[in-house]
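Field notebook, page 328. I keep forgetting to write these up properly, so this time I am using the form the group agreed on. The chain and the ligand, zinc ion, are recorded exactly as supplied. Prediction of the bound pose follows.
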Amino acid sequence: MSQFPTRRLRRLRRTPALREMLAQVRLSMQDVIAPLFVREGKGVRQEIAAMPGQFQFSVDTALKTVKAWADKGVAAVLLFGIPDTKDATGSQAWSPKAAVQRLAGAIKKALPEMIVITDLCLCEYTSHGHCGVLKARPGGSKDVDNDATLALLGRTAVSHARAGADIVAPSAMMDGQVAAIRDALDEAGFEDTAIMSYAVKFASSLYGPFRDAAESAPAFGDRRSYQMDYRTIDQAMMEADADADEGADILMVKPAGAYLDVIADVRGASDLPLAAYQVSGEYSMIKAAAAAGWIDERAAALETLTAIKRAGADLIITYFAEALTDWL
Ligand code: PBG
Ligand code: ZN
């Protein structure tokens, strides 16, 4: 036996062309969904301090932005709304005149091919910042009332569908929410509106910057009584199965980068299309390190996003969407 290796994996890494040919995972703009924050008002383009390069828009500036994104190759947007007034039930969530509804309609009118997805939750709309309505627990503390919230999510889904949303994306983590939303949509004649379910959503510190962006931090407590504990893995499959049974068209795992094992597990267990959300904290950590000169933003974004695809995600929601149009 020679003292030198016969298997030399380096042979196929020698040139950029060889590496490109051998690549087994590729990012494509077809798979990328761009989140966007829209609020009331006119001419708003307010940068989000905790998320450099991301903005709160009003409907007019958001529409211009989405048009520019479409020209660059963005195929899908995920809309988040920030109302001017909040109340205990989050009633602005299902107002036909709210920013998300107006923007969804305006995008579908101007850009019929753009896929409009709406985040479906109440936390941006409730005065207390929780993802549903509250009820008192025995003893006096408050918790989110699962079943009372279902009807409100259904109502909000119908208003998004009526406004023109192609897909609604429920993120409240209420048990039974996909079934309730499917029922409400069908009953209102929106049987063609799809549901992308935030099926496996962990209670995560990585949502911190988003709560600045969407002004949706809970006024008390946290979301751990409804979002998943990151130490539970078996529940991930139970959540995914439940949502598939209830009629979800697309499943989602969130966050993405710290949950690649979960993405791979769900990929292996379900044939539904699978999305993963590279959340605000994942974005802001890269942006901050890049701004300090400690990391190469483009390289870090491409590496982390490619890893999410490699783990098994078909679709990726990422704040790097616009940047990707230049990078890919
Ligand atoms: C609303 C919602 C949140 C995110 C998406 N939808 C916040 C939360 O659950 O606290 C987080 C997205 C991000 O961090 O980028 N329920
Ligand atoms: Zn919420």
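OBSERVATIONS:
- Residues 119, 121, 123, 131, 171, 207, 210, 223, 279-280 surround PBG (ligand 1) (CB under 6 Å).
- The chain has a mean pLDDT of 97.
FOLLOW-UP: compare against the apo run.
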